[in-house]
Amino acid sequence: MKLKHIVIAVDSFKGSLSSMEAGKTAAEACRKLIPSARIDIFPLADGGEGTVDALTDGLHGQIIPTTVTGPLQKPVKSRYGLLPDSHTAVIEMADAAGLTMVPPTQRNPLNTTTYGLGELILQAISDGCRDFIIGIGGSATNDCGLGMLTALGWRFRKADGSAAGICGRDLADIAAIDGSGADPRLKTCRFRIACDVTNPLCGPDGCSAVFGPQKGATPEIVAAMDQSIRHFAELAEAAQKKHGIKHPGAGAAGGLGFAFHTFLGGELVPGSRLCLEAIGVRDALKDADLLITGEGRMDRQTAMGKGPAGIAALAHQLRPGIRTVAVCGCALPDAEAVNEHGIDAYFPILHLPMRAEEAMEEKTARQNLRQTVTQLIRLLRD
User: Fold this and answer.
1) Partners of 76 in beta bridges
2) What top-level class would CATH report for the domain 5-42+283-380?
3) Which helix (H) or strand (E) holds 28?
4) What are phi and psi of 63, to 5 degrees?
5) pLDDT band at 382 (very low <50, low <70, confident <90, very high)
6) Full-prediction pTM beyond 0.85?
7) Average pLDDT in the 261-268 region?
8) Beta-strand (E) ranges in 242-370?
9) Which CATH superfamily does the domain covering 51-271 fall into?
10) What pLDDT score does 14 carry?
11) Strands 88-92 vs 131-135: parallel, antiparallel or unpaired
12) Contact (Cβ atoms closer than 8 angstroms) between residue 145 and residue 104
């Protein structure tokens, strides 16, 4: 085939290469063999870990460091990505309230808060941002956004009129919701939330039952939190005059999906689709001959909406007949599912038996990736 235009969008090889590092390495191999080809490199992410780095680096933005209140109400270092348009912020909630911030022995969703995420949003608003791309995976919380909303200016009162707390355990005490103090700048903001789960807020498929145990919840805590979250959500629906308990994705990140949808008018979007919109890859794909994508580990989950499958599907939609190949650090036996989702073939980059630690060294990963892409281009070029 005649390769005149190649689009490269590779997700990060976690622990080895960032999305853009992988993309640039693949591009070097392509240019060496086809110097006349147009080669476009895009960052790739799916809204999870690495999204801030991928979009900020790939779109030539900058990382803005800050300090916020962590999930255990202690100061933690955090950050957000500011894109070149100066009004779009990319945030991972895990940078403010992530499960990894809580030692295993202290994990209990009754005691954690999303307050720091609200602080992070306010910092970005003060810096001029009004468009938000927020990944909400990896939370340590089950507070239904109580902490975040409190930081943003909502007031939650107990029956005696005193202020409620900001943690998961405090949801049960809330008797009234007052939004009059919410930051007025929020009305000019757009929130797009990377959300790959469709769980409702409550019940056997809700956030407490499905995700609570991994955050340290016992069966007793799960039952109590499900009840208190339903109580809070019914008050919220009445106060906001908007339904959200059964909204697909409401149960994401301990009810953050509900909070963004009901209080902030946020749009819950599959992560890979949201990130593909952000990187502006559509026009490049329309006349591309080859798409090179991939990620560190390829398996059945890749086919379930992760970055490589998402961009492969978009490529075939925009450019029927485009050749799409993927490279990966390793491939599990069930990775063949990706062949049914737009990826014509995938190629693990490992060339010699070696320990995982050695394979993940940056120099080794870069060499293996370059060698694999070189062989792919030799096979596919005219």
Assistant:
1) 68
2) alpha beta
3) helix 19-33
4) -90, 130
5) low
6) yes
7) 97
8) 267-269, 290-298, 323-331, 345-348
9) Glycerate kinase, domain 2 (3.90.1510.10)
10) 87
11) parallel
12) no
